[in-house]
Write a structure and sequence with these properties.
2 copies of one chain form a homodimer.
Chain A lengths: L6 H5 L15 H8 L3 H9 L6 H14 L5 H7 L5 E6 L6 H15 L3 E6 L4 H12 L5 E5 L5 H10 L2 E5 L9 E4 L2 H14 L5 E5 L6 H16 L6 E4 L6 H14 L5 E4 L2 H13 L9 E3 L5 H5 L6 E3 L2 H14 L5 E3 L3 E3 L5
Parallel strand pairs in A: 1-2, 1-3, 3-4, 4-5, 5-11, 6-7, 6-8, 8-9
Antiparallel strand pairs in A: 10-12
Helix pairs in contact in A: 2-3, 2-4, 3-4, 6-14, 7-8, 9-10, 11-12
Chain A binds a DNA duplex through helix 2, helix 3 and helix 5.
DNA sequence: CACCGATTTGGCAGCGCTGCCAATCCGGAC
DNA sequence: GTCCGGATTGGCAGCGCTGCCAAATCGGTG
């Protein structure tokens, strides 16, 4: 009645599958319902600018009555800068990346941001593609994993002007914000620890190092650490596939076949080490009496093994959270080294 | 030169932190550069509509020259329906949800969609909040976990008119698309299996069932299965916290303290069962001779234990992928039961 | 009762793109 | 050379919201 003559249009609604959804409710609908201007509604909904208490009540009532859901697509286009952060991770198979995501989404949510994720499968070309794809959403920032990117990715990142945080590695130059720890130093520390405990014939079991650059840095650091202790790798087994419990188990089996006199095994990460541990259990190899085991990441599962796994705990969740907070806060370019912690455990 | 008089504006660019980004390149810039109309550029970029080969080349050249990145925010607002799918999962701590994500993002990427994720921590009120938040991006569809939602969530979902896929459970009525398997039947099958193998004093070790409704359904199914076999639960330990290896290990310890004569333990999932297995290893409890163990999910780690874990394998990745594909294809409301597979293993 | 500064409000021009429609072009048929 | 149908192209009005600015309102003050 009060709108005079709009009835025809209102009746002209789309009626989809369940007779429920209709022409989407817009801010203008709310303004009409509350008998205020559009900008007033906008101000109230964002608690931004000034308006009277009475107006707020009217608007909120209208919102509730109509079941209005703001359209952030429109809001983002009209304002500048979205409340979106893109997150690029290499894999969802290894729990470390969900951990990173968890830290990031927790922090992001607090700041009122949302995350769009993309997975690269450790492929730099795919990384370039997904970065382009994420950039097309005009995110407020991007979280990527590692410091190694192909030139196309680097160019896009730089040219976009979007803030970038590179995570889980500090061994090299970053583009903008860097949050992580030194994988190289972690490898060195592991070698030093094993050498210090008296192990002399140390082998390495790793996964695909050409794709996982951080694992490659640990490997390099580990070799350096051994060398500093006057040792060399007594044998190694590298499998050209992603890390997994299975690869670790099979890898140790294969390595021991070639080098039966090893007294310690360093794994590219905890999943691999767990596989190695299972191999030892299955074959009656005494740990650490006959063979010591050392991992990387400090997963919960390692801590709960009958003998807690010797490993290095990395602050993954914290790295995600820190990066998210820095991006939201518009912090200047910086490097945040979160460090790592060596867990002595009982397997080495 | 050729634009006549625009120079002043062009010079008036923002110059951010590194002197790199500038006034963002828009489709209009590309059109001007390529000397074609805006709609032509739009058509070429989306390979939609007709245009000559010569025009395509001109446009692509201009795009490359300017480093243009389309603005999907604007594109989405102008067209109807985004290429976004919202994914709501309860947790990132348990690998099953990253698995689900993995399946979904893989399928989504093939279809040219992107995923926005949100985590509820198994809290229905948080679910309502994140669903609202995701809906404000006007996604083409939403993937949620489970069939249980509070009334607010249900109302928002229905009122939005957005397609919804509910995952990992088929025990109950769905809102739209349902992809999963019967948790209840899985529980029953587990009980039947244990009873069939001759176990009589069977205990249950579980995590917080009030929040994890699917675990609760397995528990109910398990009890029904026992009853059908003329048995009852010989003891149970339920911990009011999320599932983990630690809770499983501690839970079995506690349960055995109260019910030392159990001959089998059914765990709410594989993580929990792995913890139980570690307890048995640490305390010299023969598996399955003295105590049989049974899990749920069919994680890789269980398959690689010295004795493969008896469990039920669930098609998580496939569920994510199937849901994503159905949503993208605009399939009608349906229930897809992917089933599950009982793995005999060696622990029961 | 007119007047003033502060507070509250509404109007409207974009944000960058897509969809529609009309205009133009092209190659062959007549 | 003219005409025709299809292929190609450009113009422009929105999509729903925000940001800016001007207008209206309010509550004292002199």
């Amino acid at each position: 009645m009060d709108e005079g003559g709009n009835e025809v249009f209102e009746a002209d609604r789309e009626v989809p599958r369940d007779g429920f959804a209709r022409r989407p409710i817009t801010l203008a609908d709310v303004a009409r319902e509350a008998r205020v201007g559009e900008s007033t509604v906008s101000r109230v909904l964002r608690s931004h600018g000034s308006f009277s208490e009475k107006t707020r009540a009217r608007v909120e009532e209208a919102v509730a009555r109509l079941g209005y859901v703001p359209n952030r697509i429109a809001g983002t286009l009209a304002s500048t800068g979205s409340r979106l952060i893109g997150i690029v991770i290499p894999s969802l198979t290894n729990i470390v990346f969900p951990d990173l995501l968890r830290g990031a989404t927790m922090a992001l949510e607090q700041e009122g941001f949302q995350s769009v994720i993309a997975v690269t499968d450790y492929d730099q070309d795919r990384e370039e593609a997904v970065v382009g794809s994420l950039l097309s959403w005009r995110p407020a920032g991007l979280i990527v994993t590692g410091l190694e990117h192909n030139s196309g990715t680097r160019r896009r990142l730089l040219a976009s002007g979007v803030r970038v945080a590179e995570l889980l590695d500090t061994d090299g130059p970053g583009l903008d914000i860097v949050v992580g720890y030194s994988n190289r130093a972690a490898g060195e520390a592991s070698a030093r620890h094993l050498a210090g405990r008296g192990y002399r014939r140390i082998g390495y079991i790793g996964h695909d190092l050409t794709k996982d650059r951080r694992a490659a840095k640990r490997y390099a650091g580990f070799r350096d650490g051994l060398r500093a202790a006057g040792l060399t790798l007594a044998g190694e087994e590298r499998v050209a596939s992603p890390s997994s419990v299975e690869v670790g188990r099979q890898g140790l089996f294969d390595l021991l076949a070639r080098a039966p006199d090893l007294d310690a095994a360093y794994f590219s990460n905890d999943d691999m080490a767990l596989g190695g541990y299972f191999h030892c259990l299955a074959h009656g190899i005494a740990v650490p009496g006959r063979l010591a085991l050392f991992g990387y990441n400090g997963l919960d599962v390692g801590r709960l093994m009958p003998q807690p796994l010797a490993t290095i705990r990395t602050p993954r969740v914290e790295a995600g959270a820190t990066a998210a907070r820095l991006l939201c806060a518009g912090a200047p370019a910086t490097v945040v080294d979160l460090g790592f912690e060596l867990i002595e455990g009982a397997t080495a």
